[in-house]
Amino acid sequence: MKISIVGAGHVGLATGIGLVILGHEVIFVDINDNVVKAIESAKPPFHEEGLEDAMERHRGKYLVERNLQNAVASSEITFITVDTPSDDSGSVDLRNLAEASSQIGRALKNLERYHTIVVKSTVPPGTTEGFVKIILENTSGKKAFIDFGLAMNPEFLREGSALRDFLSPDRIVIGANDERTREILEQLYRNISSPKLVVDIETDEMIKYASNAFLAMKISFANEIGNLCKKLGIDSWKVLEGVGLDHRIGPYLLKSGLGWGGPCLPKDVRTLIRQFKQNGEEPLILEAVYKVNKEQAYKLVQLLKKYVSNLKGRKIGVLGLTYKPGVDDVKESIAYDIIKKLIDEGAHVIAHDPLGVQKFKSMYPDVSKIIEFAEVPEDVLKKTEIIVIATEWPQYEELDYSGKIIVDGRRVKKAEKTAAHYEGLCW
Ligand code: UGA
């Protein structure tokens, strides 16, 4: 099949290259010139495992376009994978979605063939039918589910393993309100053997939020248990290992520590909380999930104060800036919260990250102006005795921590074994 992908970020690019691997032809569309140029030269514009190889191997089977209407005109299906960021109140910014929808609508107007539009961006329940559909119909003069197909099909891709997750998902959930669209999507994914669930569009929008909220809840639960274990002198990782062996619970996302950040979980939890409130329901669990997570950075700084009661003028090392290892993304990274607190208390920070420094500098310019960045982690260890670990990059397992005070939010074993003073956040 011929597919257009609107928005070539982590989700769009991994989905598109995944579809190419499944044998489809893909046209990427992006408004960012750097993204277009990168794809033209078969390079992902960000770090994503396996993507560069796959792009090189499949050169010629995908194209990149600046003009969305041209892409729609030469394809059968259009996936919308644009960003839908949310602010602190959980309100979702739908401007990118609106712009993409109206351009697709204009392309549909002159199109003789049947075309299917699939929303893959995470959107609050009701958005596909109450917002996207209306824009498409108004700009095209055509009727959804009759003249063109419309579906919702959320992504469950983790950054860093997005391509792998696309090709072997736990499930594919197709949100379709009509038979024809359902069949088109089933056909599209026929070479993936995972379970496929077909639901209506609004149910599918909710499945995405409920899934991410559950993942966040699992981690916050692990952290809350971890905080009590710390007070009792119990190793929460052992406790949670024992808990996770119950197949109804499972071992995943039960590593206690600094908690969850990134471009998805925080924003989706906030949006779901807002949905509860807008509908007169109290989000009792989710508010606690969010609060527990926010507290972890503060708890880590408190632990640090066991060793350095006054941070003013002290040099503190921070290892790790990204929201998890294996990615270059620093969005809503807990490392930022920690650094902000350290600076507010007058500390000098020297930070290292193998991939995230550039993005950290452009996302957090205020903080970046004040702190020092180390090229290699060894420089952090050379320049200070007191170090915080915020991201568990594998290379931090290779360092020499002897003589150092380490306050660890992620559990780097080598530091635990060899530091002069070691303090784990939840163990
Ligand atoms: C998350 C979901 O896992 C994906 O299923 C979803 O598709 C994606 O959001 C999205 O909505 O696009 P991602 O944000 O890439 O994916 O990150 P995860 O691998 O789930 O990790 C999230 C955070 O939890 C990280 O900051 C990580 O350090 C933290 N974490 C993870 C823990 O603190 N403890 C754990 O045991 C596991």
* Widest sheet, order of strands: 3-2-1-4-5-6-7-8
Mean pLDDT: 97
Strand content of the residues, in percent? 5-15%
The SS-based structural class is alpha/beta
Count all strands and give the number. 14
Radius of gyration: 23 Å
Q: Main beta sheet, described? A: 8 strands, mixed
Q: What is the number of independent domains? A: 2
Low-confidence stretches: none
CA-CA gap between termini: 52 Å
Number of helices: 17
Quick take:
By secondary structure, the chain is α/β, with parallel strands linked by helices. It has 17 helices and 14 strands.
Outline the structure in words.
- With 427 residues, this protein is α/β, with parallel strands linked by helices.
- It folds into 2 domains: 2-197, 3-Layer(aba) Sandwich (Rossmann fold), CATH 3.40.50.720; 211-424, NAD(P)-binding Rossmann-like Domain (Rossmann fold, 3-Layer(aba) Sandwich), CATH 3.40.50.
- 45% of the residues lie in helices and 14% in strands.
- The chain contains 17 helices and 14 strands.
- The strands form 2 sheets. An 8-stranded mixed β-sheet has the order 3-2-1-4-5-6-7-8, with helices on both faces. Strands 11-10-9-12-13-14 form a 6-stranded parallel β-sheet, with helices on both faces.
- The mean pLDDT is 97.
- The structure holds uridine-5'-diphosphate-glucuronic acid.
- Uridine-5'-diphosphate-glucuronic acid binds at residues 155-159, 212, 215, 219, 253-255, 257, 259-262, 264-265, 323-324.
